[in-house]
Every structure is written in C-alpha cells, then in structure tokens.
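Sample intake sheet
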Amino acid sequence: MTEALLKTPLHALHVEHGAKMVPFAGYDMPVQYPLGVKKEHLHTRDAVGLFDVSHMGQLRLTGENAAATLEALVPVDIIDLPNGNQRYAFFTNEQGGIMDDLMVANLGDHLFVVVNAACKEQDIAHLKANLLDGVELEVLEDRALLALQGPKAVDVLATLNPAVKEMVFMDVARLELLGVECIVSRSGYTGEDGFEISVPSEQAAALANTLTDSDLVEWIGLGARDSLRLECGLCLYGHDLDTTTTPVEASLLWGISKIRRADGQRAGGFPGADIILEQIATKDVKRKRVGLVGQTKAPVREGCKLFDANDVEVGIVTSGTAGPNAGKPVSMAYVRSDLMAVGTEIFAEVRGKKLPMTVEKMPFVPQRYYRG
C-alpha cells in the first residue's frame, strides 16, 4: 500500500528530520516531527513554522476569458480581482453544496489557482469541462509549495528578498528567492502572518534548508497545521465543508462577493446560485457551522454527536482539538440553526458521557494577518 503513495519533492528532507510520515490525500506526508504536535503548534504562534504543502494542486489559467471562466464556477468576484492580489473562493455544485475551496491569485498574465490535494483531480476535470474560448489550463506538476507561518516569518523571508516587507495580507508577487523566481503570497492557513511560496521542485529543498537554517524556524507537520487552523476558525475541506453543505450553512457569507449577490451587478451565474441566494435572503437553513468550547478538559473530536439539554440529537462535531493557545478544548460543529446563538449550551457525547460545551464566536484565538 505504502508503495502507491505519492511523495512531495521534500519527502527525503522530512525523513532526514525525523518526521513521522502518514498517508494523507494520496501522499506520504509528515504528521509531526520530534518536537511533537503541541510544541510545533506553539512554536508557530511564537516564532516561525515551515510547512510542506506541495501535495496541493497548483494550476495556471491563461487567456483573456480566464477570469470569466473561473467566475462562472464560484460565487466570488474574479473578474475584478486586482493584479497582485489573491482571493479565497469555493466551487459550488447545482445543489449549492461546496465542491472544494481554493485560492485564486491574479498574476497579470495568468490566474494562479491552488486547490486541495484530495479534490485535485475532480477540480481539474471540472475546470476543463467549463473552459471558455481561448482559455488554457495548465497543471503545474513541477512545483513545490511551502508555507512559512508565524509572527517572525517576514523577518526570516526578508533576508532572502526584502520586497516581502512591502506586501500585506493577500498580496501576491513573483519574487526571486535564492536566485529562483517564486510565486509568493502573504497568506496562510494558521491565522498567523506568513507566506505561501510556490517554488520549482528542483530548488525546493535548497529553499527549505535555507529557511530552516534560521534559529527561528522549525519544521511543522499536519497535526499542528490542523490545530492551528482550527483555533483560528478556518475550515478543512472534507471535514467542515463538503458537497452537501452550502456556504450559508457553513457560515461563509463573507466569502460570497457582494457583486455576485442578489442585488449585485453580476448577481448569480454560478452553480446552485438560486439555492444559495435564496438562503441568504430568507436566512432559512436547518443547520449552521458554529464554534464550540469545552467546559471540561476533554477534547471533543470529529464525529462526536451533539445533544440539547433535553437529550435530543442536534448536530455533529466536524473538527476538534485540545486548543493549545486557546487553553481549552475547541471544536467546529454543525448544529440545528435555532441553537447557533453564542452562549448556547450543547452536550457532546464522548465515550458514553455527555460533556457540556458552549457556542462561542470564532476564531477562538485572534487572527494576526498583516494588513499594513
């Protein structure tokens, strides 16, 4: 079975650094290093963590109709996305469900798109089936993707190219690092300031080694990546989002551009628009994604059933962690929409016991993106 797993260009480095490797989205990926998940998590919040996210899909859309092609598949303003900016988006299906979430960057002569590893093949097929005239889709198979995250990430990366200091959250640019042109965005999946760096595969190890030569930087695995994103209220596709969940149910209204809403200039025009826009108008959904904080010390993990005070089942946990920085167990869950108010008490079934939890506003720890 292991033989069939794909490897990122940095695989040998992970093994060299003592990583515990696990199968993830078809790849052999580092879940943790000798430092351990909790210390990796705390180190990223305090200094800088380096993550290998090369398993993600990197795509290039070219042609004058590239933005129109993508905009027809997402409820997001892509046509007016400024050159040098990046935006969060999600593919929707005809039922209004979310097929995947993605990042879209305008690099002037093309759109650079990053999609989730587990949805990569499906997303590529979906785009290919919907390309407008003259638009070409290129799958960038020869690039690695690194995430440098944490409050001191800018200091580390600026030693390789001081131009990164001028960037703010969601800026993207082609920058030279160690003499190699990379695509660098000031963004990430930890809630911290930081950068995502697309680098040609052959130069990936040299860049990673240079970054980790800094005393500030530690390698960070998938375990801490998960707890970091959860504390900051960020969804994980296939867990907190799926094809049966609409953006309204997922509490992702902020991700639906005003111009694509019912009263916008380019209203609708994406799959499932009628359903999604109706839900926005009526606020009529049966369930909503909420944050939950444990009143006991026991972490409440994905799959735990949720009950109200009358022992009626009202929802399910989709992500959960001990919350190293939050200082208490934190979870994401879908609950009946009449129970989504902050302060509502809900009970999670953990090993046969009903543990009290409280609905709390997300993020559980403040996001610290650099906005200038």
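Comment: The chain is about 20% helix and 30% strand. The first helix runs from residue 11 to 16.
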